[in-house]
User: What shape does this take?
Amino acid sequence: MMKSTLILPITALLAGLACGKHEAPQAPPMPTAKVRLAAVDPAGDTGWIAATLTATRRATLSTRMAASVTKVFANEGQHVAEGALLVSLSDGDLQGGLKAAETAVAAAQAHHRRIEALSKINASTPSELEMAATSLAQAQAGLAGVKANLAYTQIRAPFAGVVQSRMVNEGAFVGPGQPLVELEGQGALELEGTVSEQEAKGLRIGLKVPFEADGRPGSAEITALSTGGDPVSHRGTIRARILGSTGFRSGTFARIKAPGAAPEGLSVPRSALVVRGELSGVFVARDGKAELRWLSLGDARGAAVPVRAGLKAGEQVIDNPGTLVDGQPVEVSK
Assistant: This one.
């Protein structure tokens, strides 16, 4: 009788706990978005390769020393001659070392002359003369090292050109290898751009190609060509030397015509693009849902952007996606 009395309260307690269980609330389904499709057209002008006009001679100047900038002699756009002083760094410690090194050389020279004179009258041993010569050579090497370090505090133009960028100000502390000045030589220009394997078809080193810059035509000869060098973009480098004196300016955007390299492709309107950081893509209507598709795009001209990869002909691209999210149900408006 006692056992039955205990079982009944426990059973009632378990039943109460079972009744108290609640299922976790489920997220409401995403609303169906009504969307319109974008016009996807054949990419008509894909035989042009984007490039930039640059000087064939250019250099980013730095120093091997850790020092403060005492004076900057060059500004952007300034024409400088070969050997012109561009940046001066503090050299107080080195000047002290220079005097000590010069004193050491003078003392070593005097000692060497004395031992050499004694050797002529057999008053010194050959080993003493050899040691004096070694000491002199070491002192001279030390002096040369100090002078070399002093030269690193005077940043000079390796060739005549135009200062493109000044990266330091007076009073700043710089370290070894830090860029100080960017210099471009005057005269010869070249085109530099990137090229895909498809765009490179029909191109070769030595081939003369037409180009456009500032709305004017020109001619260039390909001097370097590589494809697929970048493991992410799968694009290589193309460089072409400008032929003739055309009056083009460094830094100008240009387009290289790639004869026979125009691939078949598609173009989408800018209004359909989804840009997140360095990624660009579109939403595709697929099986009643929005599917985010990242694309490899070409250089845009006007309202259309050529698609290199990521989209197939016949796929439904959603225009003006707004707040659309991947996987959201969509209804295409007619």
The helical segments are 2-20, 92-120, 126-151. The chain has three helices and 24 strands.
